C-alpha cells in the first residue's frame, strides 16, 4: 500500500520502467498537481567544503508531510570526456547513489554532468569523499563558475574530428580547476568542444566559448567514390534517412544545389569545390562520406557569447577567432580565454552572460580586449552608421597640434 | 592588501549591511576590497577556506555571506 494516495500519477508507475519511485516524491508531485503550484524551493548554503559549486540545494516546503524529501539536493558529477564509462564505473556510482541518495539519476544534464537527484545535507560530504577517494571522480560546476566543460566523442570514434576534443577538454578542465570550483564570475560560463561543424554537443548554441573544429585547405575528393554515389553504388548519407524511398540519388539536387555558398559544381562527371568560398558547413561530406573528407590543415574556430533566452532572447555564438591550431599546451587558446575573462569579470554586471556584455559594450570592445585584429569574418552586415569615430592613438599626432608650426602656413 | 586587513574590512562592511542584506555577489566583495577580480579572488578563496565567509548558491548564481546569516539557516530547518 503506497504511503500517499496518488490517483493523478498512478499511470506513471505502470509499465516496465516506472518513472518515479519514491513514495514521498510522488506525494509532493500529486500535491503540486492538486494545488497547481510547486512545493520545491531551490538554492541554499549546501555544498562540500571548499567548493562553491557542484551541489544545488533543494528543499520541500512541506517537510512534515513528506519527510523523505525534506532535503532533496542535486549533485553534479563531472562527466568523463566523450561520456565514455566502463560498466564497472557505472555500477559503482549507482551503488553509491542508491546507498547515500535517492537512487534517481539523470544521464546527463544539459551541461553534460551526470546528475544525482536527491539527497540530504549530511550525505553530501560522504558522497563527495567516496567519489573523489574511491572512484577518482570530481564534482562538476554550478553557480557563477566555469561549468563542466563538455565535448563530442571527437577523434576517438569520428572521422570528421578536426582536433582532439577530449584532449583539450581535459586539459582546460585541469587548468581551470579554480574557476570550476570557486565561483567568482558574474554568472555561469561554459566551454563546449565540437570536433567539426556538425556540432554534436551544440557548442555554438550553448556555450560562452564554442570551439568548433574546422580546416583550411581543400576538402579531399575521391572522384571514383563520387561516381559510385552518382551510379547508386553507395547509399547517400551513409544509409541514414533510408526509411522511405527518395528515388535515385541526384547529386545536383542533394549536394551541389544545397551548398550554402554555391561553391560546388558537378561537371563532366567531376566534382569541383572552390575552397575559398566553402564555409565548411559539412553538408556535402555528410551526404557522401566515402567520397569527401575534411582537409589536412586542421584546427578550430572560436566563437563566443551563446546563451539561453533569459535576457534579450537567445543568442548563438559569434565568430571571434576564425582559425586556430589546437595543439598542446594550448597557450594561444588560453590567452584568448583569459583575456575574455579579465574583461568580463571586471565589466560584467551581476548575472550578465558574456553574450550580453558583448551586446552592451560592442563586439569591437571584445576585439580590443582580446588584442584580435578585425577581419572580414567578424563583419555581420554592411554598416548602417555613416560616422567613423577614431581613437586618439589611431590618428597621427593625436589630438594635439603645434600651433606655431600651424601658423607658419595659415594666417589668423 | 594584507589578508588580515582584508578580512577585517569584509567582516566589518558585511556586518554593517546585515540588516538589509545577507548575501553578496563576488563583485560586491571586490568593490569593498578595492581590488581587481583576480586579486580579490585569492583573498575571498582564503576567507571561504577559513570559514569567515560561506557560499550560497541558487544553482545558477553564487553569492557570499557571513556564516549563519543567510535566510537559509531557518529554511533548512536547522539552527
Ligand atoms: S561534432 Fe563532428 S567530430 Fe564531433 S562527433 Fe559530431 S560529427 Fe564527429
Ligand atoms: S562543406 Fe558546405 S560550403 Fe563547403 S563545399 Fe561542402 S556544402 Fe559547400
Helical/strand content category of chain A: alpha+beta
Q: What oligomeric state do the depicted chains represent? A: heterodimer
- The second-level CATH architecture of chain B is Orthogonal Bundle
Compute the average pLDDT of chain B.
86
CATH class call of the largest domain in chain A? Alpha Beta
Rounded radius of gyration of chain B (Å): 12 Å
Q: Say which CATH homologous superfamily of the largest domain in chain A is assigned.
A: Sulfite Reductase Hemoprotein, domain 1
Strand segment tally of chain A: 15
The major beta sheet of chain B can be summarized as: 2 strands, antiparallel
Topology:
The complex is a heterodimer of chains A (412) and B (79).
Chain A: H1 23-35, E1 40-42, E2 55-56, E3 58-60, E4 74-77, H2 87-100, E5 104-107, E6 114-117, H3 121-134, E7 150-151, H4 165-175, H5 177-181, E8 191-194, H6 203-206, E9 209-215, E10 220-221, H7 223-230, H8 251-254, E11 264-267, E12 270-273, H9 283-287, E13 292-293, E14 298-304, E15 318-324, H10 331-347, H11 354-361, H12 363-369, H13 403-407
Parallel strand pairs in A: 7-8, 8-9
Antiparallel strand pairs in A: 1-3, 2-4, 4-6, 5-6, 9-14, 10-13, 11-12, 14-15
Chain B: H1 3-16, H2 26-33, H3 37-49, E1 54-57, E2 62-65, H4 72-75
Antiparallel strand pairs in B: 1-2
Helix pairs in contact in B: 2-3
Bound molecules: iron/sulfur cluster (2 copies).
The site of one iron/sulfur cluster (SF4) has 12 residues of chain A, from loops.
